[in-house]
Specification:
Length: 509
């Protein structure tokens, strides 16, 4: 909407009349997904709330995504963080929980009750719902034909922001070609095509590009100012030895070194691969940074200190990104993903999942301290949940990773099989109590009386045997503060998050 200035001060300075300095000079351009039914429905819902409540403009947006951080993970993470600080875990408050607005978001996708990370990230970055396994495309894509990703492409908020002159950044502890970060720049019907060697023969014949190549081919504005995480192998040729691990090489079959190509495309571009390189960057400058700290995903937070070359924390990455992006007077859009919460849950390993949840919360606290709530919209949410449960009737202050014990101190609670059980467990996964063998299936729960269930590597017990624990389908929490945060309330569609952010910045109609 174009604002009409009526005061002399406004006539002298249009930017002074904008509530937070957002774009006001001309209506924003239409996006490619404008006619998509999910896009239109979400836009209408957010527009209705905006008409009721008003929405001051934001200059900056920071979107935090805890991959797999369902409500039970937040609750257990809260208790874990409090107990590790020596305070009451149950009443402890995470930084994200202090944000003044909150909602539940529905995570179903166009074709599934239970989502994967590709379409949920697409929902938040583009405002549409799509198929499991697809990135950056609408429901009109044919998942059997990769070429339809071109005609079904949806513009991401990061692309729209770059084209409008804002600064952009992406941070993830996962591979930067993984589903969530890739949703800011890639368009594909196959989320697993992270490098060219993974593209199917038919995909190659059709000319479909892998995700890492789409990053270096990205032509919006001057490109990402900050792009830091894991996934180095997908950018390096199979003939090149990894800079940190001499026994590993790149994953690309086409012989291209995409890190070199990216760096040579701009005079202020810098590639860093370790903690020393990260610390050597002056983020309070016009540098553009590609940080690739691991061949695959970055280390779990619980293992980060043991990394041979060192890795920055998620909070360190967030502070650096905000420093760099804040140099743009027009504002910025930043994604921060804690991708390894999800991976630990898939492994049935609650200890690492909770440590990474706490690391995300420290990054949220860092962003809150480094930004102004009058001009910066912060949203914290998850893409989906997991089959992760908090169970039994443990007493207050019972170790969250421990066995369920009676509140009166009379020892461990036992099931009908006369064996104790832990507060945290999974519905399915590698920790299943059932063992499958040619001789027959046997379900017999291990006696945990003498097992250290608080050990970092402990795998929680589960019911259904699966090699990897699955996502859950319930709604996820959304927390928000800053201009536009009042549009986050009640139960919303996940793709409405895009519209909240884009409208707050004045970047969509």
């Amino acid at each position: 909407m174009i604002r009409i200035c009526v005061s002399m001060a406004c006539l002298l300075s249009l930017s002074a009349c904008a509530s937070s300095g957002g774009p006001t000079e001309a209506p924003p351009p239409a996006v490619r997904q404008q006619q998509d039914s999910y896009y239109q429905s979400a836009a209408k819902a957010v527009s209705g709330r905006e008409a009721e409540r008003g929405a001051p403009r934001a200059k900056n947006v920071i979107l935090f995504i805890g991959d797999g951080m369902g409500v039970s993970t937040i609750t257990a993470g809260r208790i874990w963080a409090g107990q590790n600080r020596g305070v009451d875990g149950e009443s402890y408050r995470l930084a994200m929980e202090t944000l003044p607005y909150s909602a539940f978001a529905k995570t179903y996708t166009h074709d599934s009750q239970v989502a994967d990370s590709a379409p949920t990230a697409t929902a938040m970055t583009t405002g549409v719902k799509s198929y499991n396994g697809t990135i950056g495309v609408t429901q009109s894509a044919d998942i059997r034909k990769c070429v339809t990703a071109e005609t079904a492409s949806a513009d991401s908020l990061w692309e729209i922001a770059e084209d409008a002159g804002l600064a952009t950044g992406v941070i993830s502890t996962a591979r930067l070609t993984h589903a969530t970060p890739a949703a800011t720049y890639a368009k594909t019907t196959e989320r697993d095509w992270e490098n060219d060697a993974q593209v199917s023969p038919s995909g190659k014949e059709a000319g479909c590009r892998d995700i890492a190549r789409q990053f270096v081919d990205w032509r919006h504005g001057d490109g990402f100012e900050v792009f830091m995480g894991g996934g180095r192998a997908n950018f390096l040729p199979s003939t090149l030895v990894d800079p940190e691990y001499p026994n590993l090489k790149g994953a690309r079959a086409d012989g291209r070194d995409l890190t070199r190509e990216w760096a040579e495309a701009g005079s202020s571009r810098r590639v860093v691969t370790d903690l020393a390189g990260f610390r050597g960057v002056n983020f309070d400058s016009d540098v553009q940074v590609l940080g690739l700290f691991e061949p695959s995903h970055m280390q779990y937070e619980a293992d980060r200190a043991r990394d041979r070359a060192g890795e920055p924390s998620l909070a360190d990455l967030t502070r650096a990104a905000i420093t760099r992006l804040s140099r743009n007077p027009k504002g910025y859009v930043l994604m921060v993903e804690a991708g390894r919460i999800d991976h630990a849950h898939h492994a049935g390993n609650a200890a690492r999942a909770l440590a990474d949840t706490a690391a995300l919360d420290e990054a949220v606290a860092a962003a809150m301290a480094a930004s102004d709530p009058r001009d910066t919209l912060i949203i914290v949410t998850a893409d989906h949940s997991h089959t992760f449960v908090i169970q039994g009737y443990p007493g207050r202050n019972n170790p969250i990773l421990g066995l369920v014990t009676y509140p009166d101190g009379k020892g461990a609670v036992r099931g009908l099989d006369s064996r104790p059980f832990t507060t945290l467990a999974y519905m399915n996964g590698p920790g299943s109590i059932c063992r499958i063998s040619p001789q027959g299936n046997v379900c017999n729960r291990e006696d945990l009386s003498k097992v250290d269930t608080q050990a970092l590597d402990y795998v929680q017990q589960a019911l259904i045997p699966l090699p990897s624990e699955t996502h859950g389908g319930e709604d996820v929490a959304v927390f928000a503060r800053g201009p536009g945060a009042q549009l986050v309330s009640g139960t919303i569609e996940q793709n409405e998050i895009f519209h909240v952010m884009a409208r707050s910045l004045g970047l969509v109609r």
